[in-house]
Design brief:
mainly alpha; 6 helices
């Protein structure tokens, strides 16, 4: 059974995804040229990754296994728990790298589309 807090976090993740999804068809040059659009997308993306991390930790904990030390390792642990498949885990684990770049190397990345 999924805990109520996990359900709440899944709903938040979906809400943030819907907000980001609106911009996926917008040309990257247009987003980079518009500081508000870029900042909004970045913020919603960061919130999505943080919610996903919380969900991962909660599910791993509920299944009674040790929680990995890093967020990327949490995504990569999910296939062994039969939550997602390995291919998807490998792809989505890269969101941690993007999140960290936005969070820790923002000045370097803020006007770059090289992610």
């Amino acid at each position: 059974m999924i805990h109520q807090e996990v359900k709440r976090k899944i709903a938040l993740l979906q809400e943030y995804f819907e907000k980001v999804n609106k911009y996926l068809s917008v040309p990257i040059d247009e987003i980079l040229a518009n500081e508000e659009k870029r900042a909004a997308m970045e913020r919603w993306f960061l919130l999505m990754v943080d919610e996903a991390n919380d969900i991962n930790a909660a599910l791993i904990y509920q299944l009674g296994t040790d929680i990995p030390e890093t967020a990327k390792e949490m995504f990569l642990k999910l296939p062994s728990l039969q939550i997602i498949d390995q291919d998807f885990a490998n792809k989505i684990a890269e969101s941690i790298w993007v999140r960290n770049e936005l969070t820790h190397n923002y000045e370097k990345r803020q006007k770059s589309d090289q992610f």
